[in-house]
Each structure stands twice: as C-alpha cells, then as structure tokens.
TrEMBL record:
Pfam families: Cupin_2. Residues 42-109 form the Cupin type-2 domain. It comes from Amycolatopsis sulphurea. This is Cupin domain-containing protein.
C-alpha cells in the first residue's frame, strides 16, 4: 500500500459548486492484491455534496470517521449518518453524500468489485 503526506497525484481537491471536498487514494487495485478496487479517504466541507451516482459497477463500504451528514439514493429517504457508522452500498446502486451545514464529514471508502466479476478473475497473490 502506498501512503504519502506529500502531493503526488494521489489527492484530489475539488469544488463542484456545492462546496469543497478532498479525496485521497490510500491504496489501489494492484497494490492491494485483492478484489478491492480502492481504499480512499474523503473529506467534505460543511454543506458539501458528493454525487456518487455512476459508480454502480462497484460494491462500497463507507465508514464515517467524523462529522455528520446524510447519504441518499434516488427515490429513497436520506439516511442520516454520524461518526462510527458504516454504510454498505451494494452493486448497482449509487447515491449522494452531503455533509451537515455545520460539520465537515470525513469518510473512509472501500470499493470492491462485485462478486459476479471477481469470481471470473484468476487468483491474485503477491510475488515472492
């Protein structure tokens, strides 16, 4: 796994008109030797929204490190989240995260290939 404190292309900061957010890659597919697509740290400034739609090809586990906010999928009532909670997003879904107006929201994301894809792949192991 690669972890770095310097700016080396692994951190993305953006402002989509809905507030600022930063996304930091902590590990990627080939580095993890697993069916994990990525392991990321996400920080949303207060009131910021992050649209995760279009990522429905993955299964995701989102852990709320700190702060408060909500997760919502189209047509569903928003799920209010706070520090210490885990949100599982199954394959084929994708929603929107929003930090509370008075609180940044810090998340850890583990994105995994769906079982239907990973079953077809050869076993991957680190080289000796």
């Amino acid at each position: 796994m690669i972890v770095s404190r310097t700016h080396d292309g692994l951190t993305e900061t953006f402002d989509g008109g809905l507030g600022s957010a930063s996304w930091r890659c902590l590990g990627r597919r080939g580095m993890l030797f697993s069916e994990c697509e990525s392991f990321d740290y996400v920080r949303l400034a207060p009131g910021t929204a992050l649209d995760g739609r279009g990522r429905g090809d993955l299964e995701e586990a989102w852990f709320v490190v700190s702060g408060r906010g909500e997760y919502s999928e189209a047509g569903e009532a928003p799920l209010r989240v706070r520090e210490g909670q885990l949100v599982i997003v199954p394959h084929g879904c994708g929603g929107k995260w929003r930090a509370a107006e008075d609180s940044p929201l810090e998340l850890l994301l583990m994105a995994l290939m769906p079982a239907a894809v990973s079953r077809r792949l050869p076993t991957r192991t680190p080289a000796e």
